[in-house]
Design goal:
The complex is a heterodimer.
Chain A (H helix, E strand, L loop, with lengths): L1 H32 L7 H40 L2 H17 L2 H16 L7 H32 L3 H18 L2 H13 L5 H15 L5 H5 L2 H20 L2
Chain B lengths: L1 H33 L6 H38 L1 H8 L12 H16 L2 H13 L6 H25 L3 H18 L5 H10 L5 H15 L5 H4 L3 H26 L3
Classes of the chains: A mainly alpha, B mainly alpha.
Amino acid sequence: MNEGIVAFIRSLAGSLRDLTPIILVIGFFQVVVLQQPLPEFGRVFLGTGLVVLGLTFFTYGLEMGLFPLGESLAFNFAAKGNLAWLLAFAFALGFGTTVAEPALIAVAEEAAEVAAHGGIVSNEPEALERYADNLRYTVALAVGLAIVLGVYRIIRGWAIHWFIISGYVLVVLMTAFAPRSIIGIAYDSGGVTTSTITVPLVTALGVGLASSIEGRNPMVEGFGLIAFASLTPMLFVMGFGMVMHA
Amino acid sequence: MTETLGKLAYTVGATLWDVLPIAAILLAFQFAVLRRPLPDPKRILWGFGFVLLGLALFLEGLELALFPLGRSMALQLTDPDFLSEAVGPAGPEHHWSHYYWVYLFGAAIGFATTVAEPALIAVALKAEEVSGGAIGAFGLRIAVALGVAIGIALGTWRIVTGYPLYWFIIAGYIVVVMQTLFAPRIIVPLAYDSGGVTTSTVTVPMVTALGLGLATHIPDRDPLLDGFGLIAFASLFPMMTVMAYAQLSQWFARRKPS
């Protein structure tokens, strides 16, 4: 039990260390650059306490729940040896975690406004909503396919850089043809798709798969799923723009 | 206090709602397809609970203490009134160099939020475990945070100057591809991954406010069009810094007399 308490305190200290830079930056800019008083001390103190506690719980639960879960799923799928089910799972995981991602919902709504602004869709709530929903499903589809491709790459042991480099070439080519108003959204959509719960699960899945297949190095083949999930949305959103804005 | 508790309960509920699809997919495959018992399901459930609670506390605390300040700061720093006070009155348009506090704030806040990013902590822990300690979790996170800092500073500068986004992205891709050819093979997938994980819970809200503030205050910028792109910058540069980190460590290791 004592060990548990020591581990918890060490973990708290780690969270505090991780948070110090934000506090310093905000404090410095508030007092020195903008020359304004610090707001109510109690509020900031309480908030910072919650953040530190939250980060500690998160890291704790990660090692206890999400990592073992992702790994055991990977081992069980490898043991079952059914590729179709594994790929179906990969797609469901990518699509399902992305379609409800709050950051993506926010970006899709902004994108609908941009489209209305440019006169691509009418400025009515229904048209905006339809546009935003379509965009969201497009990105979720892109992430689902990305995880499928990424998992298949792990199984075959293909080198990742060929995929990423050809992805970049495609992004550059499509940038030349995509409508200008979609490019910024497309580039950003790559970054917002991967949420804080998805990342540990997907990482554990990739590493678990690579370690349970003989001849795969978990460091070389296990990572890379997130990279796929960040690349395909750019392509799909630009494609979406080319279709919708044409 | 009661208000905070009420909000906290709401955030826990909202986080649960976000996680529902993930939980449904995991359960469906676990019970319908795999039909194998999980090792220690109770522990995993507890862990899941801790992750949810932790994330909710984390978000609520940020919303209480840091986000409002950070957001208003981003707006104030980009305000022409502040600029005139800092560098003296200018004509209708400020020179790009007048925005130095914005670049500095962008770099500092990009670095600071990335160090606290939970998703990055997860990947870094895994990388340390898998590499048997050859890649340190903290070193990796610092490398990624430096990348985000460079990315945001450059991205804000781009919004101020108005150069097209794709120039930077394409140039960045060329650098990443060149580095891929020379970097140690073991770091490449991890470096590619670190681009995607940097921008989530903490970084996105802060950075979005900065982009929006800049695009609103600078003449001839459309917040709807020019406010985008900072996240893309923040995802691109960590790939370079992580590969550079591995290249430097390799170089130093080689120089060391054996």
